[in-house]
Amino acid sequence: MTKRKITLISGNILAFFLLAYPSFCKLSAQTSGVGITNPLKDATLAGFIDTILAAVIQVGIVVVTGSIIYAGFKYVTARGNTSKLKQAHDGILYTLIGSAIVLGAYVVRQIVMDTITQVLN
After folding, report:
1. What does the buried/exposed string (b/e) look like for 80-103 if buried means 16 or more CB atoms within 10 Å of the residue's CB?
2. 81 and 33 in one domain?
3. CA–CA separation, 98 vs 32, rounded Å?
4. What confidence tier does 106 reach under pLDDT thresholds 50, 70, 90?
């Protein structure tokens, strides 16, 4: 299968579930008499945002760590070749920029959480 076909099929499946989910919820609530339980561990918007951002930050830390190791490996194996050294320097620079973005996401998370808790209190 081509990448385009896989993307199209997965998009159609996602659209089906997103469009059909409210109907399934209504049907199950009518037939069983029991409401749908919340699958998320957070019941508030602030908790949900905090959970999403915490997951993004954790993944970002792993990616930044792996990128630093890979850029260092490229730097060591360049052995004086100027083009490979430039690629290694660029990799280190992009890794530092990525780590600044992850740190910025953490700061934004803290600001958003503080703002939400102040507004709700």
Report:
1. eeeeeeeebeebbeebeeebeebe
2. no
3. 49
4. confident
Long-range contacts, stretch 56-60, CB < 8 angstroms, 24+ apart: 56/105, 57/102, 57/105, 57/106, 57/109, 60/98, 60/101, 60/102, 60/105
Domain residues for 15? 1-37
CA distances from 85 to 7, 27, 69, 71 (A): 37, 62, 15, 10
Residue 25 has pLDDT above 60, yes or no: no
- Say if residue 56 is in the same domain as residue 101: yes
Distance from CA of residue 97 to its chain's centroid?
A: 17
CB 104 within 8 A of CB 56: no
Split into its structural domains, the chain has a count of 2
Six-digit token pair at 14? 């996602």
Residues 25 and 73 in one domain: no
- Fill in the amino acid letter for 33: G
Do 29 and 55 share a domain, yes or no? no
Same structural domain for residues 21 and 76?
Answer: no
